[in-house]
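Please decode residue identities from the backbone states below.
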């Protein structure tokens, strides 16, 4: 596969975007990335989205968004992999450019959630689970994660308040990100008095419903532009059983472990070489499991990493450096692209107040479902 470079990035603020439609959000991010790349229109467009058909009553996003941004007659398609749709679209675009079939591609992640009633969004999110074994019995997505968290607490002896470090870190970093949903720091006391969503998950354990779009322009030619050059060092994907009950060990994210293992091998590095990790902290339990599955700590020690502040900007493995899903927000189909945009900014040295010091390699991991479809990418500063 040819080397692929990130030439341009763009992102919209994550919030309740009442004034913009889905195609307008996607178009804003796309045009920002095109302008940043300074290479004109790409040869192909790949769009990550989960629920436009249910939440927005709109499919055919490939043609819709290509038309909206004026990229007429370009190859353009939409890809769905639940909350991992953004990274799935990135991997598809990467394979097209890396193979030489295309010389450039624009990958857009977009989700417009707040226009729909919350019960409809809840119903849409649970389609990422096994309908026959989970969704049809009324189990919501947050409930599935609550079951995982309860079992994790039982297995390893943690209490719910011990997960506070993940959210405290995310909110502290989001204060410096103008595109983040929340700009307020939180304390341990705030976490402990937060309202319960689905025991043991409280409001500060969970990422918010929101709108947003992010985009990345990739090319097989090294850009001669205004930024430090960043390339894609690895791209890997793996799946697990879609239902939690069928997993050999639900306390391990096998697809996270396997995709990370393959990515490390492709890049020729190990976890200790990663200077920034944008993990998929849709819920605190996923943050803990991701750290463990990707080799940053032993099983059962994820919460300790947060409590001992090893995940801070100046810690062993900085995570959620611009707020993560928890505080930047989680517009599901766009999340994987936001993560990659943020890692790119870190490797360019353009992350502002939350700039990490070790920025040769950065990793982003996007999770679809409750761990059933996971994509891991490693970027490298050239």
């Amino acid at each position: 596969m040819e080397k692929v470079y990130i030439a341009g990035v763009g992102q919209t603020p994550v919030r309740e975007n009442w004034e913009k439609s889905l195609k307008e959000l996607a178009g804003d991010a796309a045009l920002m990335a095109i302008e940043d790349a300074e290479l004109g229109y790409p040869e192909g467009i790949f769009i990550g989205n989960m629920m436009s058909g249910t939440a927005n009553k709109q499919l055919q996003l490939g043609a819709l968004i290509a038309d909206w941004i004026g990229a007429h007659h370009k190859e353009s398609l939409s890809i769905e992999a639940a909350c991992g749709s953004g990274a799935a679209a990135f991997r598809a675009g990467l394979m097209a450019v890396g193979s030489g079939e295309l010389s450039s591609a624009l990958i857009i992640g977009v989700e417009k959630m707040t226009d729909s009633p919350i019960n409809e969004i809840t119903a849409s999110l649970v389609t990422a689970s096994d309908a026959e074994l989970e969704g049809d019995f009324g189990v919501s997505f947050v409930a599935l994660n609550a079951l995982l968290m309860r079992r994790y607490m039982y297995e390893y002896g943690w209490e719910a308040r011990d997960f506070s470090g993940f959210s405290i870190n995310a909110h502290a970093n989001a204060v410096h990100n103008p595109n983040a949903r929340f700009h307020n720091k939180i304390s341990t006391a705030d976490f402990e008095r937060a309202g319960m969503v689905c025991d043991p998950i409280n409001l500060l354990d969970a990422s918010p419903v929101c709108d947003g779009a992010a985009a990345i322009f990739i090319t097989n030619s090294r850009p001669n532009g205004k930024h430090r050059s960043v390339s894609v060092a690895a791209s890997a994907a793996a799946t697990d059983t879609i239902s939690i009950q069928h997993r050999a060990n639900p306390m391990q994210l096998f697809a996270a472990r396997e995709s990370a293992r393959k990515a490390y091998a492709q890049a020729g590095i190990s976890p200790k070489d990663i200077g920034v990790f944008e993990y998929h902290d849709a819920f605190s339990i996923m943050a803990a499991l991701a750290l463990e599955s990707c080799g940053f700590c032993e099983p059962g020690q994820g919460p300790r990493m947060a409590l001992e502040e090893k995940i801070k900007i100046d810690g062993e493995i900085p995570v959620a450096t611009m707020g993560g899903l928890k505080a930047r927000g989680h517009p599901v189909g766009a999340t994987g692209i936001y993560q990659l945009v943020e890692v790119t900014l870190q490797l360019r040295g353009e992350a502002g107040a939350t700039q990490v010091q070790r920025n040769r390699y950065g990793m982003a991991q996007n999770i679809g479902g409750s761990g059933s479809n996971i994509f891991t990418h490693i970027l490298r500063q050239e």
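Observation: The chain has 13 helices and eleven strands.
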